[in-house]
Write a structure and sequence with these properties.
This protein has 263 residues and is mainly alpha-helical. It is built from eleven helices and no strands. Helix 3 crosses helix 8 and helix 3 packs parallel to helix 9. The protein starts with a helix and ends with a helix.
Length: 263
């Protein structure tokens, strides 16, 4: 599929902003995936293309956090392996979903993610007692969230971060750093599957990946210094805007259903 230069440049700029936001609070896919869909990219190709730039951003953030000594490799690597398996499994299942189902699911999930960000409790930076053992997190939370990333993806970094805080009792900065390792792993798991299926629009994905990598480097530095308090409200606004835009797009299955219900 050929992409017009203006579309490529616009989506590259979007990827830079998304990489910056994703490194701080997660949810960069809330911007890039709807932007790809709004640009007219086929849903399956959009999810696959988005995964390459997302992997670039999360690997970039993981490297930056690791250089700052924030990644806990001993406990994180087994979790990362299970997250990789979950991401690959989600990507494999995506091929069995029809285009109409994806057009219905994507805006619905965006709305749910926006509600989550809106009503999620404030996250503290102090460690507390873990609610589940590490092995349970490794076998349940990591592959389940990774599977979601393979199927859809936006917001998965924030879901990992909240899981580390709520289930493992980690402070927000510690959870943010560890979530990047698992996020990168499930991105790479899904990307491994997509790369064998030929669904990635490679020139667009590479341009977005470079921009996302640069944005994530800048975002990681801001994350260490400022945290995510100012970014999450922005993610909610963008998520709602993109969901509404997709719903109002002519021919969107979810939008057509809502119009039928309202009529």
């Amino acid at each position: 599929m050929e992409v017009e230069i203006t579309v490529l440049l616009g989506l590259t700029a979007v990827a830079f902003v998304a990489g910056f936001l994703d490194a701080i609070a997660g949810g960069g896919g809330l911007i890039t995936l709807p932007a790809l869909l709004i640009a007219g990219i086929n849903p399956v190709a959009a999810i696959a293309t988005n995964k390459l730039q997302a992997a670039s951003a999360t690997v970039s953030a993981t490297v930056a956090f690791a250089l700052n000594g924030k990644i806990e490799w001993r406990s994180g690597l087994p979790m990362a392996a299970m997250s990789f398996v979950g991401g690959a499994g989600g990507a494999l299942s995506l091929g069995y979903l029809p285009k109409e189902a994806l057009e219905t699911i994507v805006p619905a999930l965006l709305i749910l993610v926006a509600l989550y960000f809106t009503f999620a409790p404030e996250l503290e930076n102090q460690d507390t007692e873990a609610r589940i053992p590490v092995i349970a997190f490794c076998l349940l939370a990591a592959p389940l969230i990774g599977f979601y990333d393979g199927v859809f993806g936006p917001g998965v970094g924030s879901f990992f971060m909240v899981a580390f805080v709520v289930l493992m009792g980690q402070g927000v900065l510690r959870a943010m750093a560890n979530s990047k390792l698992l996020n990168a792993s499930c991105n790479l798991g899904a990307l491994t599957v997509f790369s064998t299926q030929g669904t990635i629009i490679l020139p667009l994905a590479m341009a977005m990946a470079v921009a996302a990598f640069a944005g994530a480097q800048l975002g990681t530095r801001c994350a260490v210094r400022f945290g995510s308090q100012l970014i999450k409200p922005l993610l909610v606004i963008i998520c709602c805007f993109m969901a509404i835009k997709l719903i109002l797009t002519p021919g969107n299955a979810f939008g057509e259903y809502l119009r039928w219900v309202l009529d």
